[in-house]
Structures
1.
Amino acid sequence: MKDLTIHFILDKSGSMQSIWDDAIGGFNAFRSKQVSEPGRTLLSLTLFDNTVAEAHPALPIAEIADLTRATYVPSGGTALYDAIGSTIERAQGTEIAGVPLVVVLTDGLENASRRFTRASLAALISAKKLTGWEFLYLGTTPENWADAEAIGAAPMSFRADAAGTAGAFAAAAQHAAAVRRK
């Protein structure tokens, strides 16, 4: 089993309000599942709406606290490209355990980024993939999936409801397990 560094980028824009508790529970279940996996795992968490905030830098996964309604509050727009690009930039200057895996979960489309464009993000992701980085993009609509493909991330779909959100986080956990086994 390989070590893994997971950079989780979680949408907290206003449209996530309908699955607020599901996103919290899904992330916490994902984190819990990764704690029990063999090998060393580091986890960083980026939350975004109109702005991008690093909730946790890459730390041993057992040190990352669960999300709560106080630490994850949906509001605002979707600075998706800035969240992904900023996370990659921050990760370049930090310790990486094994394979770097970037996981993006969003229910919306880009509408608020100021630093990164689709083209600049695609170039950054392409360069990282050449060095072994993996990218998983969980989105709710065909437009999300087209966006994921345009930037070079592997798209997976989910429904923005309780079962769909739980399934998305479970799929992310399965993908992380598959990356460990490569």
2.
Amino acid sequence: MTAKLVRVDPLFPPLWSKVCEYLDMALEVGGGKRDWGLDDIFYSAIRNQIDTWVLLDDDGIFGACATSLTIYPRRRVLDVLLLGTDPHREDGWRLCLEQLSDVARSVGATMITGTGRPGWARKLGCKERRTFELEVSPS
């Protein structure tokens, strides 16, 4: 079976509900609910600030993701903001990232970045990068 990544218009309710199902799972498992809600994703997609996608094969939809493109002076980077797949599909996230490589090439990006649960970098065979957060108090 070949997986395919398909961009989803948030104003198309039948597919948008599937996007929400998987992205809500990603928000829950990944601890992203402090940064995003499904309504934030919806409005960001409508404003073309992010793209939303479903991942499907012959059996139907088995994942979804949200991406954005960051354009730096010397390169373009495709940022994976959220990625959720059927928990029974061990290969789901890997298939999604393979498809995102094609998306990245199509927009001239030379790198894909994202965050995920611990161990993803190891499974992907890439450098594990650490990030930090500093709280900034209001003035």
3.
Amino acid sequence: MVGLVLLGLTAAATGIWFQWQQTRRCLDFYGPVAARRISKAPLVELLLLRPGTGVGRMAAHTRVDVSQALGLIHLRRGLVEDANFVWADGEATAGPPPAARLPAAAWDVALVFSESAAEAAGRTTLVIDFDRQEGALATVGQPGRIRLGRIGTGLEKWINSTLSQLPNPEKPGF
């Protein structure tokens, strides 16, 4: 009996360690609150962006609630796994995120993860640039960005597929 309990505790500790190893860089990049929100927030919106009226400003020209979209659970998981991104040193698992800012017009879409529609403080907004060479992701209000790695193509396909299921589908044209 004691052996089974020890085996169970060892397996649990190994699972926790393994999970931490897969997500530690994303947790550092997003912060624990934002990472939790990306993984579990009940309200998720997709915004198609365009240059706004002020310098360095973006505006959403299309806003879609994607909280119930097919594949969102997999996307959430992918957004917090280190191996899905290319970090500053070119490796998917090492190095700090680049600090250089992209111009506001570079960002194509945003994903907004919210605790509720009315609570602005309970939001995490990720902006995404689908540039073919150096696609990137950043968190609004936080420094740094990470390059899209293997998540880039799947993320773009998911967005296009989700938008094509709308009554009047928007063609983002990344």
4.
Amino acid sequence: MRRNWGTNGLDRRVFLAGTAAAILAPQVSHAQSAAKPEALSEVIASFVAGLDLKSVPPLAIERARVAFIDTVGVMLVGAQEKAAEIVHDIIKLEGAKPAAGIVGTSLRTSAQNAALANGIASHALDFDLTYIQGQLTASLVPALLPLAESTGAT
């Protein structure tokens, strides 16, 4: 039985899917008519690159912050779990260039290895909000943090 976790009777997964469809619908129709396989990727990349945070509703910013903090929190706890420790040991043996840190540890490794270790940690206890609220940051933040760190992004 599927539970409704919304406070206003709205299933969040349905809401998120509808929101994405509404934002992309005009562009997707145009992209499909152009008959280019990469057109949808271009539309999404263009939307992201042109996004002005000043135009984003405050509630969306707040929810993004909560999702980010939640993900970092579960990574910190998950980094101490056996599954994460196994990955840490493998990464130590590899001896990759220390370009990015692994959340919850003092280890530094390649951005790819850090993304792997962070991803394992983010799912080690299955405490992320993915199942309950449709939050998908547990698969994004673990990779974005080392990418940002290794490229000097702010």
